[in-house]
Design goal:
By secondary structure, the protein is α+β, with helices and mostly antiparallel strands. Among the domains are: 53 residues, no CATH class; 195 residues, Histidine kinase-like ATPase, C-terminal domain (Heat Shock Protein 90, 2-Layer Sandwich). The chain is 50% helix and 21% strand. It has 14 helices and 19 strands. The protein has a 6-stranded antiparallel sheet. The relative contact order is 0.07.
Length: 560
């Protein structure tokens, strides 16, 4: 059919572009705006966590040193050493013991009352040893004090952090105890948590930082922006600050936002690129969609002009619009179409009935021949059993050859047929064959005729092994609107490859000459109840096979 350009194609195409592209643009813009705030929020949580961990690390070490110094100042050996110069070895052991058991290394000094160093560890000790001002400050406090000093005369010299206390007896000050911490030692503790730390004093002067742009004793001038954001040296940073209990210090974690800015720039470029590609792609797709989706309308209009057929059964309303010619032509041929549909439905129904009857009539002739042979020999040894076998076989044949149009039978009726079949097999196989049947009594349930027997025959044919007890368990269970028939045996079973092949054949309805009975029942159940029902097979080699048939629970005497 020659393609015709209809004017409404372009209109629908434009509407499709707007309806898709506008939400895409709004969603992308919202994501573009929201992402930086999300990143800043995540960085804030990370920065707060780093600041907390770093402050805890320092505080724990300082508190441990404080507690240790409190214990040392009470040591008799220390006091004896300051008074009389005795117990020098024990004094050094005590002083080293505190230093060695803590992660933060320190350098110690033990001075006399007049500032003379009596015991020391090699260290960058400040030049103000014996400083009477520092001694006075120590004497004014009963506990441990903290101080920060340069290790030299220049402000660029390394800074030493000192914990100090006096050692006294009941009457006077005997001496002074110092533990010094260098920048390197404090940095080793803080850098384990974060490399973005800055240690400042009360005057906001930098004492310690691994960032070279923060010079020691330089004032940390910051300009608050909003929330946790500040501007330092022209750079926007995320700041978290925690006060430390000693030295009058504060720990700051400063995270620059260059990474966020870079991500925003990259995100903007990607957004514009993706938006442009989406615009091109959506325009092409919408043009194809408009042409494809309206093809049925176009074809309907052109086909109706040529008396083509349609599958719809509703009359179209005749309105004063562009659809009026289509409605008028459609309604004129609708009666003819309905007649054709009714004829087609009747034909499909008759075809389905014929398929069911054809499948139902398939009966394994090997069973009949084996049973007749058994009867032949049974006549010579046990005529009563032979007579019983003949009666049961005649009932089976009469039941299977019944040409009734009703493809559904009562469950009780089909179970009676199954019972005759199993009795014949038990006479033929002997005591090595046992079976049980569990089913609802007088349930008025109806099932497809002779759909269970092929499953039982399959179990006996493929599962029965000579000189080994064979047990067959048949269970019929109703679950809500479903009826399940489970045929389970303890026979030979099958391997994984064979089981997979059977399952694939059941899914595809592919004929399998080795399992005609299973495929036969599966097809009949599908024809009666649809794709939601059928046969399922589970098996393990040398352990047995379980066949589950799932059907709709049909009650009463009415057919499906």
């Amino acid at each position: 059919m020659e393609e015709i350009c209809f004017p409404y194609h372009k209109v629908i195409q434009q509407k499709l572009v707007r309806s898709i592209l506008i939400p895409v643009a709004i969603s992308g813009f919202c994501l573009l705006v929201f992402t930086p705030f999300l990143l800043i929020f995540l960085m804030t949580n990370q920065t707060a966590d780093e600041a907390r961990q770093a402050s805890e690390q320092l505080t724990e070490n300082f508190q441990a040193y404080r507690q240790g110094m409190e214990d040392i100042r009470k040591e008799p050996h220390i006091q004896s050493f300051l008074k009389e110069g005795k117990d020098a070895i024990e004094v050094y052991q005590i002083l080293y013991s505190l230093r060695n058991r803590l992660p933060l290394e320190a350098y110690f000094d033990l001075e006399s009352r007049d500032g003379q160093v009596l015991a020391t560890h090699k260290s960058p000790i400040p030049d103000n040893r014996g400083n009477p001002v520092l001694h006075y400050e120590i004497d004014e406090h009963s506990g441990i004090i903290g101080s920060t000093t340069n290790s030299g005369m220049m402000t660029t010299d390394p800074i030493v952090f000192t914990l100090a206390c006096s050692i006294r007896d009941d009457e006077q000050t005997l001496g002074y105890l110092f533990y010094h911490f260098t920048q390197r030692q404090l940095s080793s503790i803080l850098s384990r948590v974060s490399s973005d730390f800055v240690l400042i004093n009360r005057s906001k002067r930098v004492l310690l930082s691994e960032d070279q742009k923060f010079i020691p004793y330089q004032r940390l001038d910051e300009k608050p922006l909003f929330w946790k954001l500040v501007q330092i040296q022209g750079q926007t940073m995320l700041k978290q600050q925690i006060e430390l209990p000693l030295f009058g210090l504060s720990l700051c974690i400063l995270k620059p936002l260059e990474s966020v800015y870079a991500l925003m720039r990259m995100e903007l470029i990607v957004y514009l690129l993706v938006f442009a590609l989406c615009a091109i792609f959506i325009n092409k797709i919408s043009r194809m969609t408009a042409r494809t989706s309206l093809r049925s309308v176009d074809n309907l209009f052109l086909s109706l002009q040529n008396y083509a057929q349609s599958g719809k059964l509703e009359y179209l309303p005749v309105e004063e619009n562009e659809m009026r010619p289509i409605a008028q032509q459609y309604n004129r041929i609708l009666d003819e179409v309905k007649q054709l549909i009714d004829q087609n439905d009747e034909l499909q129904k008759q075809t389905r009935i014929a398929q069911i009857r054809q499948l139902q009539s398939q009966f394994n002739p090997h069973f009949i021949f084996n049973t007749l042979d058994t009867i032949k020999y049974m006549i010579m040894f046990d005529q009563d059993k032979a007579e019983d076998m003949i009666v049961r076989l005649s009932k089976l044949l009469r039941y299977s050859l019944d040409a009734s149009e009703d493809s559904m039978v009562d469950l009780d009726q089909d179970l009676a047929y199954i019972e005759d079949y199993l009795q014949l097999q038990k006479i033929r196989l002997g005591d090595s064959f046992l079976y049980t049947i569990q089913a609802p009594i007088h349930s008025n349930l109806r099932i497809p005729k002779m759909v269970i027997q092929p499953m039982i025959e399959n179990s006996l044919s493929h599962g029965f092994v000579q000189d080994r007890p064979f047990h067959l368990d048949i269970q019929i269970v109703q679950k809500a609107e479903k009826l399940q028939v489970i045929v389970k045996d303890n026979g030979e079973g099958m391997d994984a490859a064979q089981l997979m092949r059977i399952r694939e054949n059941l899914d595809s309805l592919h004929e399998d000459y080795r399992h005609i009975g299973i495929m036969n029942s599966h097809k009949r159940i599908r024809l009666h109840f649809g794709n939601g029902c059928g046969v399922q097979v589970d098996s393990r080699l040398h352990e047995g096979t379980t066949i589950t048939m799932t059907m709709r629970a049909v009650g009463g005497k009415k057919d499906d």
